[in-house]
Every structure is written in structure tokens, then in C-alpha cells.
TrEMBL record:
It is an enzyme of class 1 (oxidoreductase). It comes from Actinomadura rugatobispora. Pfam families: adh_short_C2. Residues 258-280 are annotated as: Disordered. Residues 260-272 have a biased composition (Pro residues). Keywords: Oxidoreductase. The lineage of its organism: Bacteria, Bacillati, Actinomycetota, Actinomycetes, Streptosporangiales. This is SDR family NAD(P)-dependent oxidoreductase. InterPro entries: NAD(P)-bd_dom_sf, SDR_fam.
Length: 280
């Protein structure tokens, strides 16, 4: 299917930082899989990543024209500049996918200001600044689609990271605001809300050998694949979802639908707060 033929898509966080799956020639994260899928659907894809070589590697594997840009999601000026470069490729921008994100490992009692501010800068501010920079030309043309890559941590607590949970919830608020505020002017805004995905980032953060344990709590008894995330994003980005906006499409193998909820391991003891950090 070529549902995005002739359109330009920008994927923020389209590189891949982590190990490949066994036998996989190209390490596949959600952003890279999304970029490849949008290109296969006919889009000209601009890939943004903090490390330019990671973006270039994605572009090398695209089915069609693409552009790699260096962007630091924690830097608003870098976010704006990347959007301008994306628009400059063909003079338009039809689809923006905000995929970049950072995790944290601090519960409330040990939550540090540095960790909180960095998570907010990347997971929330970088996304709304990117959307803001892309919005005006879309409004002038009367069409545009945003897809935010969120997490079930934004709607359910894992008890693991306050900054991650709070910023992922705020990210969904940004998505809804764009959807409701600009729907009458041809702009759509949606999110995919991800559960356990066997992405390069997850393998880097939690190890490559824990997939069976991570999948055991999923009703489908496996982790999701980045390619399955990409398929959901491609649907929301294109005209098949023309009457869908403000929606959070859950891609979690049934975890959030289960009752009782799948068991989670007992939380580890809280880290000892460092001097100068608050405690609950």
C-alpha cells in the first residue's frame, strides 16, 4: 500500500540506539521502524536523531528519498531548526511523528530535579516545540497529521519512575490539545500508547535476555515488535484515519484490557536520596 504517496514525513527520534535482535542485520527501534514503514507507504521521510550517523543509517535503508538531520530534543532551537530543514526538503511537511523519549528510574522518594527536568525537556517540551514549529504551514495549507509515540506509563503506573510516568501523561495532553484546538482547520493529532515492545532502547536499558519474562505478563504471551508499532503509526498518519483525532491507540498486546491486571514484580527498595534532594 502507498497511502502516503507524495507526502513528506518527519520522524523525531528516527535512529536506533541499542543492540539488534538475534540475526537482525539492522538494530530496530520504534523510530527507525516507523521511518522505514512511512517510506514504504510512499512518503519522503526526514529522520531526526541526536546522533547524525544513526539518522543516516536509517535513511540508507529507506525505500525512496530521505534526509538525515541532527536534532537534540532537549534543545528548543535545535527542534525548530530540524523542522525547518524537514520543510525545506520539498517545501511542505504533511506528517510529524514525535517518537523521541528518555526513561527514568526514580520513584517519588528519590526523584531528583535533574532527572525530572531532563525528562520534561525531552518527553514533553521537545514534542510540543516540534509540533509548534510544524503547525503554522499546516494551518495555511489546511491539512496535517501529528502522531505522538507514548507509553502505557502515561495512563498506568509502573511504580518505577515518577518523571517518566508524569511526562508521558503530559505528552498525551499535548496530543489532545493539538487535536481539539485545530481539528476544524484540517489538523489531526493522535498517539500510539505502547506497552512491552522489543525495541533497541528496551534491549539497551533492560538487557537482551529478558524478553521472555517481559512477554510473560502480556495476554498475547510475547513482546510487541517495532514493526507493529510502525504499522499503527502509519494508519494514524494517513487518510485511513481521516476521522480519527485526539485518540490514544493502545498497542500493548492486551495488557491494559486484562483484569486482574498482570502481576508485576515487587518493587525494588527506594534509592537513598542524595543530599539536597527532596524526600516524600
Amino acid at each position: 500500500m502507498r497511502r502516503l504517496e507524495g507526502r513528506v514525513a518527519y520522524v523525531l527520534g528516527g535512529g536506533s540506539d541499542g543492540p539488534a535482535r538475534p540475526g537482525e542485520p539492522l538494530a530496530m527501534g520504534n523510530g527507525r521502524a516507523i521511518a522505514l514503514r512511512l517510506a514504504a507507504e510512499g512518503a519522503c521521510v526526514v529522520v531526526g536523531d541526536k546522533v547524525l550517523d544513526r539518522a543516516r543509517l536509517t535513511v540508507e535503508h529507506l525505500d525512496g528519498e530521505g534526509l538525515a538531520v541532527e536534532v537534540d530534543a532537549a534543545d528548543p532551537e535545535s527542534c525548530r531548526a530540524a523542522v525547518e530543514r524537514a520543510r525545506g526538503l520539498r517545501g511542505r511537511l504533511d506528517v510529524v511523528v514525535c517518537n523521541v523519549g528518555v526513561s527514568g528510574r526514580e520513584p517519588l522518594r528519590a526523584q531528583s530535579l535533574d532527572d525530572w527536568e531532563f525528562a520534561d525537556a525531552v518527553n514533553v517540551r521537545g514534542h510540543w516545540v516540534t509540533a509548534q514549529a510544524a503547525l503554522e504551514p499546516m494551518l495555511q495549507r489546511g491539512s496535517g497529521s501529528f502522531v505522538f509515540v507514548g507509553s502505557t506509563a502515561g495512563v498506568r503506573s509502573s511504580r518505577r519512575s515518577l518523571s517518566y510516568e508524569a511526562t508521558k501523561a503530559a505528552q498525551l495532553a499535548v496530543m489532545r490539545h493539538v487535536a481539539v484546538r485545530y481539528a476544524a482547520r484540517g489538523i489531526r493529532s493522535n498517539a500510539v500508547v505502547l506497552g512491552n515492545i522489543d525495541s533497541a532502547l528496551v534491549r539497551r536499558e533492560f538487557g537482551s535476555g529478558g524478553g521472555d519474562a517481559r512477554g510473560a505478563i502480556v495476554p498475547m504471551r510475547r513482546e510487541g515488535r517495532p514493526e507493529e508499532v510502525a504499522a499503527a503509526v502509519a494508519f494514524l498518519a494517513g487518510d485511513d484515519a481521516s476521522y480519527v483525532t485526539g485518540h490514544s491507540l493502545v498497542v500493548d498486546g492486551g495488557v491494559s484490557a486484562a483484569w486482574p491486571s498482570p502481576p508485576a514484580p515487587a518493587p525494588a527498595p527506594d534509592p537513598v536520596p542524595q543530599r539536597g534532594e527532596g524526600t516524600s
